Amino acid sequence: MDILGTILWPFRWIIEAILVSFHWVFTAFGLDTNDGWTWVLSIVGLVLVVRAALIPLFVKQIKSQRKMLEVAPDLQKIQAKYKGKRDQFSREAMTRETMALYGKHGTSPFSSCLPLLFQMPVFFGLFTTLSNAAKEIPGIGLMDKALSESFGQAVIFGSAPLHSSMSTANGNWLVIWIAGIMVVTMTVTQFFLQKQIMSKNISQAVKESPTYRQQQILLYVLPLVFLFSGFAFPLGVTLYWLVSNFWTMGQQFVVIRNMPTPGSPAFAEWEARQAARNARKGIVAPEVMEADEAPKKPQREQPRGKNRAKRGKGKK
């Protein structure tokens, strides 16, 4: 077994266990064991399990991305401080100050990549499982020879095998059309995911930083990568990634709505919702209460003239 196979082995075992478990459940409800849609539902179940397990990492990723963009102005100052200095002492000092900045804000450039790094072995594990199933090679866990043959021969819409891709369609126009629609939809959803963060959950100060401009480049580059690489993905793998994108869109909407970046449009909307909710409940905002409860200055006593004082004494 090669190094990649050794790394993917535990992920493949877990993938097979989840797929077979959902396959057993759906067949227990009366679905055909060899029907392609039974395996499609099993793949959807795999997405739900994997993405549910990634929720803590996803929340951490959102926070890390927000912090990375927030520290961008300070990071730019450090880079400007050591600009043009190529000696070892300056490079080490720049590295120390950069790491100290990350430590101060509790983030790092790598923490935002954790969910993606965790998903990639699952993604390639599913790719390997489908490829082996297409060759009727038994799995390494619960995917025995019979189930592997069933998975490898499963088709949808009558003649579109789950293991086929646009590059291996061999003139099967149904596979080409289905794969094309799924790849384009996957690309659009990937673009929307990045756009959702950049348009609603980034403050104006961060939008003026170089990091934001780099993020804008990635906004258009990453979907293109998925667009061109998606032609080699089997239908089953493309389905996994597409359903995962839809899950991420909903999950990201909830996180941005409830954990917006201060100073961003999403944060302004969150404050407006909080104010409206407090108004309905009759709760007065703390700043309003402080203004109402501020001590009033005593009214100034009008000075009495000397003549008025004398006349007052005369009357007595």
TrEMBL record:
It is a multi-pass membrane protein. Residues 305-316 have a biased composition (Basic residues). Residues 293-304 have a biased composition (Basic and acidic residues). The chain crosses the membrane at residues 12-31, 37-59, 174-193, 217-243. It is found in: Cell membrane. One of its GO terms (biological process) is protein insertion into membrane. Its main location: membrane. Residues 283-316 are annotated as: Disordered. One of its GO terms (molecular function) is membrane insertase activity. Pfam families: 60KD_IMP (PF02096). The keyword Membrane applies. Keywords: Cell membrane, Chaperone, Membrane, Protein transport, Transmembrane, Transmembrane helix, Transport. InterPro entries: YidC/ALB3/OXA1/COX18, YidC/Oxa/ALB_C, YidC_ALB_C. Residues 39-256 form the Membrane insertase YidC/Oxa/ALB C-terminal domain. GO terms for cellular component: plasma membrane. This is Unannotated protein. It comes from freshwater metagenome.
